[in-house]
Amino acid sequence: MNDFAGKNVLVLGCSRGIGAAIVRRFAKGGGKVAFTYAGSRDAAEALAAETGAEAIRADSANRAELIATVAGRGALDVLVINAGTLVLGDPLTLDADSVDRMIDVNVRAPYHASVEAARTMKDNGRIIVIGSVNADRMPFAGGAAYALTKSAMQGMVRGLARDFGNRGITVNSIQPGPTDSDMNPAEGPMAATMHSFMAIKRHARADEIAELAAYVAGPHGAMITGSMQTIDGGFGA
Ligand code: NDP
């Protein structure tokens, strides 16, 4: 499986969960992979040791740090923006600073990272953001702010796909449904409720999301752009 041999790959925010699976997949495919993390240093170092990828500490909420990190990787073939946070709760009592930080990480950072990467990205490069099926369906209370951030990614990928399409660069959102991770454990208190919305009543595994990212980023993904690739067990059906 050498589908990314020689490719310069940067994955943002992936010490754990879906992002770590994406790092594993691109590294297994032969890519020259670097990834960022914010707080989970031990997990990031373990992932780097396991995969041979390079771990870089960079907080996506810090625009200058984020842009410097992206610029520092040179001409990328693939940028995957996975870093995300989830703040749920009654909008009347939710902490406004936490909501704004989520918007920084889930909305501002993907935009600035994508634009910075595109300055030097090679022709036929790939930009992928990990969105969410909650951009299309928010079937429970307390998720307005999170859904807002993921819906914003839909507008971003549609627009940037047109901005960079003349260079063969594709821009897409992968929209998982419930996926087993620290953010959303398969055995967590919300699991049964989430499965009740699904046709296939289980959490996805992170490696299932990573495999879709590899397809979109790979040679067969050249005509997929400006699109939402939903992988949700029918959550949004
Ligand atoms: P986790 O909480 O398990 O992992 C989040 C990852 O993002 C961590 O590696 C974390 O690194 C990194 N991260 C968070 N904030 C920052 C930051 N400010 N700067 C850099 N890195 C950061 O989440 P998941 O793996 O579940 O989610 C990954 C993505 O998938 C998110 O965008 C999420 O919204 C999306 N998603 C997840 C679903 C799910 O059910 N799990 C469903 C739909 C979408 P560190 O620990 O070092 O801070």
Automatic annotation (TrEMBL):
Pfam families in UniProt: adh_short_C2 (PF13561)
InterPro entries: NAD(P)-bd_dom_sf, SDR_fam
SUPFAM superfamilies in alphabetical order: NAD(P)-binding Rossmann-fold domains (SSF51735)
Record keywords, A-Z: Oxidoreductase
Family (UniProt): Belongs to the short-chain dehydrogenases/reductases (SDR) family.
Protein name: SDR family oxidoreductase
Native species: Bosea vestrisii
Gene of this entry: bdcA
